[in-house]
Amino acid sequence: MRRIVSILLLVIVALGISLSLAKIPFGTPKTKVGRHYIDEGIKETGATNIVTSVVVSYRGFDTLGEVTILFIASIGLGAVLSTFGEKTVRDIEPASLVLSTGCRVLFPLILIFGSFVFIHGHLTPGGGFQGGAIIASGFLLIYLGCRERRISQLAFNLSESLGGLVFVVIGLFGLVLGGYFLSNFLPKGTVNTLFSAGIIPIIYIAIGFKVGSELAGIIDNLIEES
Amino acid sequence: MTIIVSFLVVLMLVGAVAASIFKDLISAVIAAALVSLLASILFYFLQAPDVAMAEASIGAALTAAIFIIAIRRTKRYEE
ipTM more than 0.85? Predict the structure, then answer.
């Protein structure tokens, strides 16, 4: 009985959503601002990746909010799971030679790939969030493969705080020099080269460090507990 | 193109249903990660490589790992 009622409710909800969404024509531009980003984005920000120009430049303040949410989630997890002082040393069965060697070979490559993604965020697809997540998956590999290795919490906290600090300080510099928060006060340079687009690469590198160390710290906290 | 996309969507649906009916929770997490992986391929075909990268690394890798770590602390099989 309960199952039938829940299936019925689901069907009603799905019908309601699909009927109301069917009225909106698919793929037609509904606002003028999207057209503006596509046409003028490269000229105004100097970043060839338009997604990056929206995320870091036009909507940079929202990105600060997103990074803050991730920061609070990571802090909350650390507070709930922290062991307060003494950490019990578990007797871990070491991984086999093939597995640990493979992890040691793959880990630097993943790290380089993640850094490439967030350093070239203004030129190619990807950016701080994607690069940070790739770096965190590299740390996950180390935790699973070389189980006796531990990365110090201090290093995570340091790079996390440094990333956030660089983001906010550059935003405030923009406020002082350009008149509004996160204004692009550095020269834009030639389009499509690594040193271009003003503050965008700097901010994306800071976000990459921050997101990578936050996600890796979350995994570290969880694995430490289990 | 349409054939590839519809094949991916059907596989995603199969994965999602499998994730909800499996009694073995580890298998359910793997099926959910498969849905994320296929979604990231779909995003790539829909010309959103930025979203595809985020979905593949967060949805398929990190979320599945966090779920598996949590399941290791509790029960593996759902009764």
Answer: no
Query: Minimal Cα distance from A218: which residue of B?
Result: B66
In this complex, the residue of A126, A218, A219 whose CB is nearest that of residue B53 is A126
* B54 chain-A contacts, CB cut-off 8 A: 129-130, 133
Task: Kindly state whether residue B78 falls inside one of the protein's structural domains.
Answer: no
Domain of B16 in residue numbering reads as 2-73
Instruction: State which residues form the domain around A102.
Output: 2-225
The 8-class DSSP code of residue B50 comes to H
Q: Does B79 fall in a domain?
A: no
Tens of pLDDT, residues A140-178: 888 888 776 677 778 888 888 888 888 888 888 888 887
Residue A127 at interface with chain B, using a CB cutoff of 8 Å: yes
Q: Residue A34: what pLDDT?
A: 81
Q: Per the domain annotation, does B60 fall within a domain?
A: yes
- CA A19, A22, A23, A28: dihedral to nearest 10 degrees? 160
Q: A160 and A75 in contact (C-beta within 8 Å)?
A: no
Number of domains in chain B: 1
Residue A153, amino acid: Q
